[in-house]
Amino acid sequence: MGDDFQSGLRRASLPLAAVPVIGLCIFLGWSGVLAVLAALLATLAVFRLARGRIGGLTGDVLGCAVEISELAVLLACNLRLPV
Question: Using N-to-C axis directions, what is the helix angle for 14-28 and 30-54, rounded to 10°?
Answer without folding.
Answer: 140
